[in-house]
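step: validate -> pass
step: tokenize input -> pass
step: predict -> running
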Amino acid sequence: MDIKKYQGIFPAFYACYDAKGDISPEGVRALVAHLAGKGVKGLYVGGSSGECIYQSVAERKLVLENVMEAAKGTGLTIIAHVACNNTADSQELARHAESLGVDAIAAIPPIYFHLPDRGIAKYWNDISAAAPNTDFIIYNIPQLAGVALNMGLLGEMRKNPRVIGVKNSSMPTQDIEMWEEVGGESFVVMNGPDEQLVSGLAMGATGGIGGTYAVMPELFLRIYECYHAGEVDKAAAIQHAACHIIYKLCEAQGNLYAVMKQIIKEQYGLDMGGVRAPLLNLAESDKAIVADAKAQIEAAIAKYC
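step: predict -> pass
step: emit ->
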């Protein structure tokens, strides 16, 4: 396993819709090209930021197919989140992802019913078995999934040689250290919460996967660069700026992803549509928040990048 391909900044890919609210292949390809041009290491496709739980299996396949087509020749590492709330659909997406040549697949645990650890392990191993030649990354996001990864469960999953890492979106950075302790040498742990990339890196995270990275990739790339250059104070200063931008984004009545898509549309002309119901699109009062957040992003990039 080449750990280097999982080191760096991975924007979580946004859902791209046309005027009717259907998946926009053109929008998907344009966003891939845009982010590749920013110099990110890879993309995390089909996760929370991709509104995966509100999309059908066919739609998720269509998104990934267009991502992979657009990513040809870019050198991007592609991680495809394939979890659905049943094993059969998850396996179908895993097989499809492997057929397209993704670098890794990832999966949250099943949501709603709180399965015991042995049930979660079987679910993940069954998904992995459907893509036997592809790396598997556990996605730990207990605040949304309702169940949390633990050292015993990870230890059980490490018996599967395809399990090479964790995307850790729990808030305690101590979790990163624990997963590395269980995972051992060359195990990949990706920091999830955007607001704590610096502290995640300090605890040993290989890189970061973030939902706000795509709207300001320059800042997170610079954080990563400064941290690894030993300029930790500078990395922390940029992290503070990014956090304040995130706080502003979250002030809107519309969903966070609706806000960020609008900023990208205004700044770069990339139209990804809105968000899919029941997520809320922008309210009229959100225009000022969009403008303020956009100005803060531009100012931070000018100052630090």
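step: describe -> The domain at 7-229 is CATH 3.20.20.70 (TIM Barrel).
step: cleanup -> pass
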